[in-house]
Design a protein that fits this description.
This protein is an alpha+beta fold and 227 residues long. It contains five helices and 15 strands. The chain folds into three domains: 52 residues, Structural Genomics Hypothetical 15.5 Kd Protein In mrcA-pckA Intergenic Region, Chain A; 74 residues, 2-Layer Sandwich (Alpha-Beta Plaits); 77 residues, Alpha-Beta Plaits, CATH 3.30.70. The structure holds uracil (URA). Uracil (URA) binds next to helix 5.
């Protein structure tokens, strides 16, 4: 369904300029609607029909992407926390309203699949504990893995300083110090804490799947559209 919006609201929500600037852009003949010059800022438009400076708009509809988060990037908007995943995306997205946010977070030293969207309802849905969305991680650990840990994960690991144990998780041993872990919760530092509770230490953590979405051959720092 096409949602019509005021021209000035459409362009300001997509991060192009302020509502006031739209009037100057109309005067300067920079905006076209279905190929025709825009006439006034209040006219109702389908954002898909707009061009600015003869270019179609960047993501005029909803955003849902997957990013392969590189090491040392943070999933925060705060510029004081270091390199942000948002710095890997088109700069204009930072001025969008609603804001573009990650679906949950990965630690600074975790790599791999992070979903990013401007749809808060989707964030709620995909991070809700009730939805049981599977997340798949490849985990490298310090000490050799033995088969006992498979049962420990399946039974629900008791994390230090938590009252309830984790929900059952699936652990597959890939090689002596590498495991594939599938879980459907999202507690703070959960995978690292689960291995710590089992007497091991995570050396590297990489998420390769989130629900129906898999990273595939997406390179670190690259992203792709999912809608
Ligand atoms: N579990 C962790 O410990 N860290 C992450 O980034 C994700 C899951």
């Amino acid at each position: 369904m096409t949602v019509l919006k005021r021209l000035d609201q459409a362009l300001s929500n997509l991060g192009y300029c302020s509502r006031r600037e739209v009037r100057y852009w109309i005067r300067d003949k920079r905006i076209r609607i279905n190929g025709e010059l825009a006439k006034n800022a209040s006219q109702k438009v389908d954002p898909n029909s707009l061009m600015v400076d003869h270019q179609p708009l960047d993501h005029p509809g909803d955003i849902l992407i997957m990013l392969n988060k590189p090491l040392d990037y943070v999933c925060s908007h705060d510029i004081n926390e270091g390199q942000r995943i948002y710095d890997l995306l088109p700069p204009i997205w930072q001025a969008r309203n609603p804001q573009v946010v990650s679906v949950g977070r990965l630690d600074k030293d975790t790599t791999g699949l992070i979903l990013i969207t401007d749809q808060s309802a989707l964030v709620q849905q995909l991070t809700s504990p009730k939805q049981h969305v599977d997340k798949v991680y490849i985990v490298k650990v310090e000490k050799a893995l033995d088969d006992n840990i498979i049962e420990q994960f399946a039974a629900g690991v008791q994390l230090i300083s938590e009252t309830e144990p984790c929900l059952p998780a699936k652990l597959e041993i890939i090689d002596t110090q590498t495991a594939k872990v599938t879980l459907n919760e999202g507690k703070y530092h959960q995978v690292r804490r689960m291995f710590a509770a089992c007497g091991n230490h995570v050396v590297s953590l990489h998420r390769e799947q989130f629900g129906q979405y898999s990273l595939g051959d997406l390179a670190p720092g690259e992203w792709r559209d999912l809608i």
